[in-house]
């Protein structure tokens, strides 16, 4: 039976794929749109909503990755998160290009209407201003998303650096405990060798215990008070 966490990961991935496909379909609709401006505005509104949903699900998947118990599964999910982020950035670039394509199509349509004698100068001016405003809004949205993605990447790098530092600390502690174990074994051999001499035995035991306590205190001091 699958663990609840695995089920959440699978559902999250399915929803990411779903929103990604919906975004791609809307971008294709924008490419095919030849006007009016209200139709383009409506499509852009839908794309923004889908991008918002997609971004939230990617963030949910990243959180689930950080909660994984196994490091291998955690790294695998984090790699999937990075792939989804790259795909979302690619979709954003396609979205912007599609808007430019639609703008050209609307401009061409207006030119054709003018050649037919239609007095659309005022309407054309309004359309251009609206398109410029739409382009500015999209640019601001993309910049905001890019900043968010940069922050997420930086947080991931900081988390990886923290894991590397923790691993190095554990390895250093392991080496020190090995050294301490060798010291204790040496003390035991000395005690066994001279066990017929009671006074010497007591002295060696005292020295071994003192060395052990000194070693433990040194390790504790080094871990808790590295600046001393």
List keywords for this structure.
mainly alpha; 5 helices; Methane Monooxygenase Hydroxylase, Chain G, domain 1; rod-shaped
Give an overview in words.
Residues 37-87 form a coiled coil. InterPro entries: Sec20, Sec20_C. It is found in: Endoplasmic reticulum membrane. The chain is mostly helical and 228 residues long. It has a domain at 1-115: Up-down Bundle (Methane Monooxygenase Hydroxylase, Chain G, domain 1), CATH 1.20.58. Helix content is 89%, strand content 0%. It contains five helices and no strands. Helix 1 (4-32) packs antiparallel against helix 2 and helix 2 (37-66) packs antiparallel against helix 3 (71-115). It is rod-shaped, with a radius of gyration of 33 Å. The two termini are 53 Å apart. The relative contact order is 0.07.
Kindly state the percentage of residues in helix: over 70%
Cα gyration radius (Å): 33 Å
Structural class of the secondary structure composition? mainly alpha
Stretches where pLDDT falls below 50 for ≥5 residues?
none
Fold-level CATH name of the domain at 1-115: Methane Monooxygenase Hydroxylase, Chain G, domain 1
Any guess at the CATH architecture of the domain at 1-115? Up-down Bundle
Shape label: rod-shaped
In CATH, what is the class of the domain at 1-115?
Mainly Alpha
Q: What is the element string, with H for helices and E for strands?
A: HHHHH
Oligomer classification: single chain
Task: Tell me the strand percentage band.
Answer: under 5%
What is the assigned CATH homologous superfamily of the domain at 1-115? t-snare proteins
Averaged pLDDT = 81
Q: What is the first-to-last residue Cα distance?
A: 53 Å
Total number of helical segments? Answer: 5
Q: What does the main sheet amount to? A: none
In total, the number of strands is 0
GO molecular function, one term: calcium-induced calcium release activity
GO biological process, one term: endoplasmic reticulum membrane fusion
Transmembrane segments: 203-220
Main location: endoplasmic reticulum
């Amino acid at each position: 039976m699958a663990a609840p966490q695995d089920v959440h990961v699978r559902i999250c991935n399915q929803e990411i794929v779903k929103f990604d496909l919906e975004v791609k379909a809307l971008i294709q609709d924008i490419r095919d749109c030849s006007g009016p401006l209200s139709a383009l505005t409506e499509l852009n509104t839908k794309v923004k909503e889908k991008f918002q949903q997609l971004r939230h699900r990617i963030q949910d998947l990243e959180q689930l990755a950080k909660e994984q118990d196994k490091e291998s599964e955690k790294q695998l999910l984090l790699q999937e998160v990075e792939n989804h982020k790259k795909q979302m950035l690619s979709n954003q670039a396609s979205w912007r290009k599609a808007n430019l394509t639609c703008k050209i199509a609307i401009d061409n349509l207006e030119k054709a209407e003018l050649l037919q004698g239609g007095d659309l100068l005022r309407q054309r001016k309004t359309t251009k201003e609206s398109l410029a405003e739409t382009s500015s809004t999209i640019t601001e949205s993309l910049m905001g998303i890019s900043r968010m993605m940069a922050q997420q990447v930086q947080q991931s790098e900081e988390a990886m650096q923290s894991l590397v530092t923790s691993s190095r600390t554990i390895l250093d502690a392991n080496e020190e405990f090995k050294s301490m174990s060798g010291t204790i074994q040496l003390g035991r051999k000395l005690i066994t060798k001279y066990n017929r001499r009671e006074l010497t035995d007591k002295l060696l035991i005292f020295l071994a215990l003192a060395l052990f306590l000194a070693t433990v205190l040194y390790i504790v001091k080094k871990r808790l008070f590295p600046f001393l």
